[in-house]
Structures are given as C-alpha cells and as structure tokens.
Amino acid sequence: MTEQTAFSTDSSAREQPPAFSIDAGVLRTDQATRNWFLAGRILLAVVMMILFLLAWEGLVRWQDYPTFILPRPADVWAKFLVMAADGSLWRHAAATVAEILGGLTLGLSVALVLGYFLAKSPTLDRLLSPYIVALQSFPVIALAPLLVIWIANGEARTILVAALTLFFPALVNTIVGLRSVEPELLALMRSLQASAWQIFTKLEIPSALPMIFGGLKVGVTLAVIGAVIGEFVGANRGLGFLINLSRGLLDTPLLFVALFTLVIIALGLYGLVSLLEYHFLAWKRTTD
Question: Distance between alpha carbon 25 and the CA centroid of its chain, in Å?
C-alpha cells in the first residue's frame, strides 16, 4: 500500500506542469500586447498624418490660395526633393543639429553641476536663486541682438542661446530630483559607512534620474527653439537662416521644408532621450 501511494504521488508530481510555464505564457502575452499597442500607435500616427495632408490639400483647393500664402503639399514635397538633391538641406540641417547638440551639452552640464550644489546647500540656493530666476525672465529673443555685439562667432552665439533656453528647466529638475532622495535610505547608507562617492553614485543619481530625464525631454525641444532663435540673428547657415531667407523671398515652400525638418529633428532627439530613459531606468520598471 505504501509503495502504491508513493508511486501515485510521484506520478502526479511528474504530470504537473512546471511552474515557470505559466510565467513564460504571461510574458509572451504581455509582449504580444505591447507589440499590438505599438503597432496601433504607429497606425494611428500614419492615419492622422494622411488626414492632415488631405485637410491641407482641401483647404488650399477650397480657398484657392496662391503658393506664397499657403502652398500645396505637393509643392512642399517638390521643394524638399530639390533641396535634398543639391545637398543644401542637409548642410543647413547638419549645422542646426550641431548647434543644438552643443547647446544641450553646455546647458545640461552647467545645470547638472550647479543643480547639485544648489540642492546640497540651502544657503547657496537662497543666494543664487533670485539671479537665476531673473536671468530666466529675460526673453531669449531679446538677448539675441546683444549677443551679436558681444560674440562675433555665429556658431558659438547660437550654441549659447540654445544653452540658455534649456538651462532653467534642466536646473530645476536636477534640484528637485536630488532633493527627492528618501531620508531613510540616506540614513541607511550612512549607517553602512558608505562614502560620499558611493552615496552619490548608488543613491542620489538613481533617485534623481527620473526628474533629470523629465527635464531633458523638455530641454531638447527648447534647445531646438533656441538654436533657431540664434540663427535668426546674424547667421549665414542653419534651418533658422533658411526660415529667414524664405520670408524675405516669399518662398513659402522653403519655409515649410525648414519647419518640417525642425520637427523631425526635435522628434528624433526626443525619441533618443526616451530610449536613454528606458535603458537607464530599467531598474525602476522592475521594482514597480
């Protein structure tokens, strides 16, 4: 009787499916759901773009607008093909991208370093905050003519304008992120005799990263705006220069080509930041 019982117990144990098979099925279901969700978003974006182009074409035909007021999508596409073929669009776009990246590097570096010290020192925060807010209250487009007088190099001037545009959001998000460290975790690290560098790399940076990436997402779009503003004043290349040129020549298709290229650049930079955020904040998804 005992042998039969043991045999039946072993057989039932062998017949039971492994526990991980359910988890694998759930993972496959979640992956399929995410794939369907991503495909739905892409399809929706394509449909919205088609509807936008149809509405644009219908408006031009209905009101019979001349090309210098509102060109047809086909006119803009033809202009894009011409500029892409002769390479002028890529030269100006590359100049603008270089200035945007330079402004991002400068503005974000200063914001991160200054934000760390302001977050750590309430006295320094009270001392510098009024001046930082006062600087941010100045319209950047009003400062651009002064920068033409002060800075002779057009590329350096545009980089500075882009850096000033994104500096304040990146600074504020850095301060808020560093101050969001939980006091219990900080006390735990100190009780374990962690060094200042270990606290900084293992606790403060991971805690501040979500806020820093949030500020960076805003900053990349503002850097595009800042670069265009800088190219409006005294520049001889870049997409902002093309916008100025098209306005003087009443070449509205050229204006639209420059604007759409700026949109693509901004979307690309935003997507790149989102990918970096997805990679560096993987630990947050697992804990949540």
Answer: 34
